[in-house]
Amino acid sequence: xxxxxxYSQSELFTQELDNGQFxxxxxxxxxxxxxxxxxKALLLIMxxxxxxxxxxxxxxxKGRHSVLVSNKSIEQVKYTIQIGAFKNRNLALRQAQVLAxxxxxxxxxxxxxxxxxxxxxxxxQESAQPLLSQLQRTYAGCRIRRL
Length: 147
Description:
Structural class: alpha+beta
Strand content: 15-25%
Strand order of the largest sheet: 2-3-1-4
Number of helices: 3
Number of strands: 4
Distance between the termini: 98 Å
Number of domains: 2
CATH topology of the largest domain: Alpha-Beta Plaits
Largest sheet: 4 strands, antiparallel
Order of helices and strands: HEHEEHE
Shape: rod-shaped
């Protein structure tokens, strides 16, 4: 048998007087109005630092990918002919231009405090030997070296 309840159950939704539809209440304090001025500045700075770290790491990954691609192409080319080692960068670049005018492919790279000037890309030492004998007439100290 059902007993009579002494309390009344409250309604979940109240109806407005006008049209009977539910109207949501507007929030009186949005998210950013809860923070003080210096806290907003700190949040902005932290966001910018986080964004710069993410963009830097993506750039490093992109650079690492391009280095891996270029290293794969260099693996097929194992030898070159070293013309000389220079302390002065301008002298090395000038000599590289002279070699390029002769129709050779100069390679200039830095190793320690020296600028190394090389010519050609070869898969083995035997293929570099004819050019080496031709270059030894002009450049006395040239030699075949690994890349």
